[in-house]
Design brief:
Layout (H helix, E strand, L loop, with lengths): L5 E7 L3 H12 L4 E4 L23 H12 L5 E3 L3 E7 L2 E6 L4 E9 L3 E3 L15 E2 L2 H4 L8 E4 L5 H7 L7 E4 L8 H9 L2 E4 L3 E7 L2 E7 L4 E3 L2 E4 L3 E3 L3 H5 L22 E3 L10 H23 L4
Helix pairs in contact: 1-2, 1-7
Bound molecules: flavin-adenine dinucleotide (FAD).
Length: 304
């Protein structure tokens, strides 16, 4: 193995969390490599909202700018997926999918999550443009529009009520299921949320913009945006490979300063438990970067 493949820190994932950690560690003059498979969670979206000073920028431009800013700190970025990671006796061993091997003293997982879309015909071209899951990311852009909320069981109730923050015109679609209780219906009605229980045939729109929801009974309802709260999964199984503890919601449990239950392994961004926003991911990356650097400083300090 070449010395080239030995690092102070390997960061897996080059989204906001991984890149911000790399910035702190690069500025701390650590030898750092970031591996990235190029699938940030918000790649479907045209705008990234709610990040002070970068509000509304294209997510791809944001990542590109971050990568450029890292150049002067000699952070290496390798555009490849990591297949395996193991830990033994203070050393992390990482293999990329082309079976190259890399070693490091500390490892940061910033591999993010992936979303499961509702199974609705026509949803894919609309996703990220007029079909969303996060009101804090995309609610404002849909202010006062005719907003549909999708939830097959009772899961849509909370989101439908929450969307009243952004529009008076909110309809909850249960897509052919009748799981709402009488008290749910009353609560929704009292708060001005309409309910449609009909089974959905398809979503229709143009250039990414939802125009109507067509029901299986032939009825067509004008809607301008759809919000759903879907399932998320880890984008990579590296956390499981390494023996991380997970919460019931499938995110990795972290302790103070983004530490995991494995020595020298940190987790930041959506993969770890906390709010799932780009600015939070970046902040967690920064926090992990500082903590990792401090741990390395402690280990390397001359004591006698
Ligand atoms: C449609 C949509 C729109 C959104 N809009 C907003 C918004 O407007 N504002 C906002 O604040 N938040 C928004 N979010 C949430 C935001 O995308 C996440 O909070 C943010 O991307 C988390 O950053 P991260 O760095 O943790 O993960 P990610 O950005 O998902 O980055 C993880 C990176 O790790 C890489 N990776 C994963 N596994 C491996 C592996 N094995 N080897 C190498 N690389 C790997 C991936 O390719 C990816 O590049 C949106 C989410 C979605 C789905």
């Amino acid at each position: 193995m070449h010395d080239n493949n030995k690092y102070d820190v390997i960061i897996i994932g080059g989204g906001a969390a991984g890149l911000n950690a790399a910035m702190i560690l690069g500025r701390s003059r650590r030898k750092v490599v970031v591996f990235d498979s190029g699938k940030p969670r918000n790649r479907w979206a045209t705008n990234m909202n709610g990040f002070l000073s970068s509000d509304g920028v294209n997510p791809r431009d944001f990542i590109q700018k971050g990568r450029e800013e890292l150049r002067k700190y000699n952070v290496e970025i390798i555009d490849i997926e990591v297949a395996t990671a193991t830990y033994s006796k203070g050393i992390y061993v990482v293999n990329d999918v082309e079976d190259r091997v890399y070693h490091s003293r500390k490892l940061l997982l910033a591999t993010g999550l992936k979303d499961t879309l509702p199974e609705l015909e026509g949803i894919e071209p609309l996703y990220g443009k007029s079909v969303h899951h996060c009101p804090y990311c995309d609610g404002w852009e849909n202010s006062d529009k005719a907003i549909a909320v999708y939830g097959k069981d009772r899961s849509g109730i909370g989101q439908a009520l929450a969307m009243k923050n952004w529009s008076d015109d909110v309809t909850l679609y249960t897509d052919g299921t009748e799981k709402l209780r009488r008290e749910d219906m009353e609560l929704l009605k009292l708060n001005g949320v309409k309910v449609c229980t009909g089974a959905i045939a398809r979503l229709e729109g143009e250039e990414g913009m939802l125009q109507r929801i067509v029901l299986k009974n032939g009825e067509s309802r004008e809607q301008q945006a759809l919000f759903f709260s879907g399932e998320t999964k880890q984008q990579s199984d590296l956390g499981q490979q390494l023996g991380c503890e997970f919460t019931g919601k499938g995110v990795i449990k972290t302790r103070r300063l983004q530490r995991s239950n494995i020595p020298g392994l940190y987790v930041a961004g959506d993969a770890a438990r906390d709010m799932q926003l780009v600015i939070v991911a970046a902040a967690e990356g920064a926090r992990a970067g500082v903590a990792i650097n401090m741990e390395l400083q402690q280990e390397d300090r001359v004591r006698e």
